Known about the structure:
By secondary structure, the protein is mainly beta. Helix content is about 10%, strand content about 45%.
Amino acid sequence: MAKCAICDKGAHFGIAVSHSHRRTNKMWKSNVKSVKVKVNGAAKKMYVCTACLRSGKVERA
Length: 61
């Protein structure tokens, strides 16, 4: 699973509890995209989460 290069956000793990209270292991995946980003004037491909894209922490190439 990919991690965000900006905020280091990745997958989260826990236990899902059903209505009958049966517990199973669960993985919540974060919304991470592979995008071209400007780094020091040059275009570079990175994994960035959509929260960082929307907040303007990253400038697309």
